[in-house]
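Is BIS(adenosine)-5'-pentaphosphate placement plausible here? Inputs below.
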Amino acid sequence: MSELNLILLGPPGAGKGTQAERLVADFDLPYYATGDILRAAVKDGTELGRQAKEYMDRGDLVPDEVICGVIMERVDSDEARDGFLLDGFPRTVGQANVLERGLQALGRRLTAALLLDVPDDEVVRRLSGRRVCVKSGHLYHVEFDPPKHDDVCDQDGSRLIQRDDDKPETIRRRLDVYHEQTAPLIDYYEERGILRRFHGGRPPGEVHDHIRASLATLRLENEL
Ligand code: AP5
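Reply from A.M.:
I modeled the complex. Tokens:
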């Protein structure tokens, strides 16, 4: 079976985490989400969390030198030998270069960059209504995907909260940062012939069907 080395690209709130939950179940891939890793580090009070917190609170990116080693260690681990799904990394051209060179050194390469396209006004609607379960990070939206009972996770009964960086002024800053620093990766991966675009404004199930079909085709092509 060929490797599936995947990254999810897209603005904040594009649905990267939502799709990742489904793709991990489909393809049984280890999943590394830099936002989750950094939030856990802040919560645990580790050195990484200490370095990252002030940037995250402002909606800025943490410096490349803080995050690159964390991800490359995971990509080079035994569990990621047959593939991985990265969410939130790379986010700058510098990070993309580190990933590309690191994979080359291992004799590997990315299979696809999955871009979820969503307009800015939709991002604001989604992030202001997002709720996350404190125990396992299950995702909800007060309007588009509400829990059965207010503020309680359907899957594990834990409390639902709003993320600190989902406040309106921080959402705007995150969008600006995305357009300035992360959107250039669209051309970067287009030039390498591995960009796959998806209309992230469609309902989650539809977006998932499109991505899954595209990956199934890609896998078949790679095995031919
Ligand atoms: P991170 O946690 O990665 O945040 P993000 O990229 O801003 O992405 P989000 O998690 O906000 O959104 P998402 O696309 O996963 O959407 P979701 O599925 O939740 O990063 C946070 C911070 O960490 C950064 O600001 C930075 O400081 C730091 N950081 C992280 N990585 C870094 C890196 N590599 N370098 C430097 N710094 C880094 O969906 C959103 C909502 O919409 C949910 O409520 C969901 O239910 C709903 N929804 C999802 N899909 C749909 C749909 N199709 N239709 C309707 N609603 C939908």
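Short version: The chain has a mean pLDDT of 95.
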